[in-house]
Amino acid sequence: MCTLHFDGVPERYREALRELYCNNQNELFLYGRGEASYNITMRMESGAGRLGFSVRGTETELFGSRFSQICRALGLFLLHGDVSEYSCAAQFSDIAIMFDCSRNGVITVQKFRELLRRCAWLGITQVYMYMEDTYEVPEYPYFGAYRGRYTRDELASLNDYAALFDIELIPCIQTLAHLHSFLRWDSASELKDTEDILLAEDERVYAFVETLIRTVSAPFSTDKIHLGMDEAHGLGLGVYLKRHGYRPPFEILRAHLQKTAEICAKYNLRPSIWSDMFFRCVSPTGGYYDVTDADFSSFTVPENVSLVYWDYYHDDESFYEHYLSMHKTLCKRIIFAGGTWIWNGFSPAYTKAMATLRAGIAACRRQRVPSVMLTAWGDYGCETPLETVLFPLVYAALCCYGDGDPDSDALDRWCAFFTGTDARALLLLDRFDCAPGVKPYADGADNPSKYLFYQDILLGLFDRQIAGLPLDEHYRKLCADVRAAAESAPHGCEMRTVFEFYALFAEFLAAKANIGNELRNAYHARDTAALESILRRIQWLSDLLPAVHEKRAALWSADYKMQGREVLDIKFGGLQARIQAAAARVSALLGGAIARVEELEEETLLFMTDESDAEHRLCFCNKWHHIVSAGNIADI
């Protein structure tokens, strides 16, 4: 481990570099500089330019145009122990990541500080905190109640810590839709248009929105705020319709945005919003990506508002360029948001993330879009461990600080620096949903590992979908590979725990994936020996599941506040109960207590089909209540 002396660094930056370097050693990152001792100086250059380092003996100079780039330059220096000079281009004015703190997983202050350090190493300049109702608003006590909401002091402390590294911490909230967790409460009934959407053109709503904006912006030093306003499906079709009659959604959105922008101007804030609703309002289907030639000539975005074009789905650079061009006719202030793909179930879709990020960022370079954002959503309960965000974060940063596809050697160096293991090992996690029968990630994002894990043994809604596919073999081989990666990872390294969880997860899937089909076949064949063998396997699954749950719970405890974990526990507990119920039913059949198992008598059906591709056997389903039963679970 090399020793660094920061005497040649201005005092206001010295503390940040020491914070990075000292915490880096505790987090088991790896260096390539050996045992030498270096004196560090830094040079701030004007303009976007380049960043990097130069070494002359034991004297090292870091250079860049802003301090976040100096931090990345320090990482480059530590990573490239075999060279005396290194530089790369800064392609964008701002490179950001948005961490989701609203899908039950509210990242702890300690974990968020760690993430901020890692963002500094990568040269990230902005971090967005996505908080639907997970921040404290004293005037509305039910806002974020029982959800692990952040206090003002917690947000202020994170803002100050981010500022240490010259990272702009930005609140990202919702001021139109995606507020169902708060609107569920009776005290919020007067603010509600539909179950998820605020009642536009109501003064009580604008008093509420102003309180949110004033409260959440107070602990932050930035003048930026993200107001959301995406996916407002059914806007104006609830209470609004009864009160005002039908009005085109585009007109409602325009009036609501204007009012909200005026509130922001009152507090000297510069808001941004997601752009999809503008396109949905002119789309023939209500979609976001099927608009070929949008005409926004009749609409003007308020002068203080920026638009965020989010697109996590395309690997064609020309598609992004076309959409960026359409955005520019709507607003001059455009931010692009790509995706990490850590929200697809239990495992990340890295192939999908790499293909879409590579194309999207390349299009932004050519279109001279100044700001690029990476989103780390936690859809449907943050089932994917937060640590899986590190690989796409490293990959995206390499795309943003280069002029082409990331170099495989650089990717390996950064992955080892952050995780203690290389890219090859991390990409094993991509194979959980890259199984026989899936659609290539460039076109889709099937997630069999999630529904094979949760689906019922007796009433498997996906059994017909997977019939005949060698999924047990796939997950058995993957289990061995992931277990080897866990054993190779350094002791105490967080990725070792991540790999240990995924090894157990793969072992469980190998035994459970096709068990419903095997059970049904043995039942109809009246094959007692096969039924007895399957019963032992079901009982073994019941014994294994607590270990899988324990590992996932340990990762949750390291990352998130405890509020929200109850949903994960309920899902695991429900799975355990149904495994035990299946064992009891089969045992009763074998013992003669019952003559038939009604659940196995019903003919299985395909969950969904792809008429355009006969080879596409599997599918995508990310909603737990759609996986575990055809009965009513939500909104009974």
Polypeptide structure, described:
Helices cover 46% and strands 12% of the residues. The protein is built from 24 helices and 13 strands. The chain has helices spanning 11-26, 67-79, 109-122, 152-164, 180-183, 203-217, 239-244, 249-266, 276-282, 317-330, 350-366, 379-382, 390-400, 408-419, 423-426, 448-454, 463-466, 471-488, 494-512, 515-525, 528-559, 565-590, 598-601, 624-627, and strands at residues 3-8, 37-44, 50-56, 59-64, 85-89, 94-100, 126-130, 168-172, 224-226, 270-274, 306-310, 334-339, 371-376. The strands form 2 sheets. It has an 8-stranded parallel sheet. It starts with a strand and ends in a 9-residue tail after the last helix. The mean pLDDT is 94.
